[in-house]
Amino acid sequence: MRVSASTTQIHVLSGDDWALFRDIRLRALADAPAAFGANLPEAQSRTEQQWRNRISQRTQFVAVTEQGTVGTVAGAVDTDRNSVHLFSMWVDPRVRGTGIADQLVQTVVAWAAANGHTTIHLEVTEHNSRAERLYARNGFTRTGRIGTISRDDPRAEFEMTRTISETPS
């Protein structure tokens, strides 16, 4: 499949887009279950209202090409840290390596900057070197903070951060 990031459109989802959000999230969980704190069976059991509620708690972006919806990422304001949290990043394996992941990350960074935020942070599951390279390429560095995905999921994840005014090297 030939896809170019230059022909990719990024859209923000609303509550009325809950079915599209559900579909891409289920695809992400089926493709890369180790990359997320959620699991496929739990996500499949969510109701329409639960999907709508999830969208209302974040700004959810999707990447769309002529092949359909091929990627997603979320951003949310973390008021406790006065920062934006980038999370739920996923790109369809058929279009990885085309620049769409970079475009999604840059979209969240631009959204955060446009809303007056100066820092952005994220967590990367240990051993997800491809994701770490993506984030490093976009100006993120490890902070040294390491935690677990959740109480029920002891896999390690580490934090990365970026000052939004910085230009990635």
Notes on the structure:
This protein is an alpha+beta fold. It is built from 5 helices and 7 strands, in the order E-H-H-H-E-E-E-H-E-H-E-E. The chain has a 7-stranded mixed β-sheet, with helices on both faces. The longest helix is centred in the middle third of the chain and has 15 residues. The radius of gyration is 15 Å and the shape is globular. The model has no long low-confidence stretch (mean pLDDT 92).
Kindly, what is the distance between the CA atoms of the first and last residues, rounded to a whole number of angstroms?
Answer: 29 Å
Shape field:
globular
- What kind of sheet is the major sheet? 7 strands, mixed
Q: Give the helix proportion (percent range).
A: 25-40%
> How would you write the strand order of the largest sheet?
1-2-3-4-5-7-6
Quaternary structure annotation: single chain
Task: State Rg.
Answer: 15 Å
Q: Roughly what is the average pLDDT, rounded to an integer?
A: 92
Which helices and strands occur, and which strands form pairs?
Layout: E1 9-12, H1 18-31, H2 40-44, H3 48-56, E2 59-65, E3 68-78, E4 83-91, H4 100-114, E5 119-125, H5 129-137, E6 141-148, E7 156-163
Parallel strand pairs: 4-5
Antiparallel strand pairs: 1-2, 2-3, 3-4, 5-7, 6-7
Helix pairs in contact: 1-3
